[in-house]
Write a structure and sequence with these properties.
The chain is of the alpha+beta class. The chain has a single domain, classed as CheC-like (Chemotaxis protein chec). It is built from 6 helices and 8 strands; from the N terminus they run αββαββααββαββα. Strand 3 and strand 4 form a beta hairpin. Helix 3 crosses helix 4. It starts with 26 loop residues before the first helix and ends with a helix.
């Protein structure tokens, strides 16, 4: 558990006690985040392999804390059309866990889970109900794997709701999550990883968006403050 080594985040708090928006993690601190990402991606690939009854492998995940004022641009701009699948969190951390996917990557995930092409959807609807269910199942497994990894590394309890999916512009889906989480400053925890088997190679962005109090709790549990 990583809750007592306060030297891990010597740059996370300003002199007035407020969190820095642009904290720079040194190599040791980055290793902690990377270990969380590796554990989460490993759990996800194992769980999906069991579901699909065929090997699913992972690439090396990227992980970092991203300041809110840089998040939208880093993810491709406010007008980028995305599929988001989000789970509201309660327990030690309140906020949201959100997957952000391109339309084609979301489609690849559905085809990976269902082992068949996308079903024809109704006019104005990108996914059929069966396809949407498959997508939410995949994100529930993947997101749950990362939450388990965070819990194992920090001792925090993270309880997700059932996932819900949205097709909209990136700026809209992020604004809703940030407003509902009550997060106006600081950063979100960002993961990027790819999963692949013989037929499909899929990747996406996974965001842990805590509320203001929970953001401090998360950093403190990592020994950052």
């Amino acid at each position: 558990m990583y809750g007592t080594n306060n030297d891990r985040c010597d740059e996370a708090v300003r002199g007035d006690g407020q969190l820095e928006k642009s904290e720079e993690f040194d190599a040791a601190k980055q290793d902690i985040l990377r270990e969380i990402a590796n554990i989460g991606a490993g759990h996800a690939s194992s769980a999906l392999s069991m579901l699909l009854e065929s090997p699913v492998k992972q690439d090396v995940p990227e992980v970092k804390l991203v300041p809110l004022d840089a998040l939208t641009e880093m993810l491709g701009g406010a007008e980028r059309v995305v599929v988001s699948v989000a789970m509201q969190l309660s327990g030690s951390i309140e906020g949201y866990l959100m997957a952000v996917l391109d339309l084609d990557q979301a489609g690849h995930i559905v085809e990976l889970i269902r082992s068949q092409p996308l079903e024809p959807a109704a006019d104005g609807v990108f996914f059929s109900p069966m396809d949407e269910s498959a997508l939410k199942e995949a994100i529930n497994i993947t997101g749950g794997s990362y939450l388990t990894a965070i819990s194992q590394m920090t001792g925090l309890e993270l309880v997700p709701t059932a996932p819900f999916a949205t097709l909209d512009m990136l700026g809209a889906v992020l604004s809703i999550a940030l407003v509902q989480a009550g997060l106006e400053g600081d950063s979100v925890l960002y993961f990027k990883s790819g999963l692949f088997n013989r037929e499909k190679n899929v990747s996406g962005d996974l965001l842990l968006i805590p509320d203001q109090k929970s953001y401090r709790t998360l950093l403190q549990s990592l020994g950052c403050i």
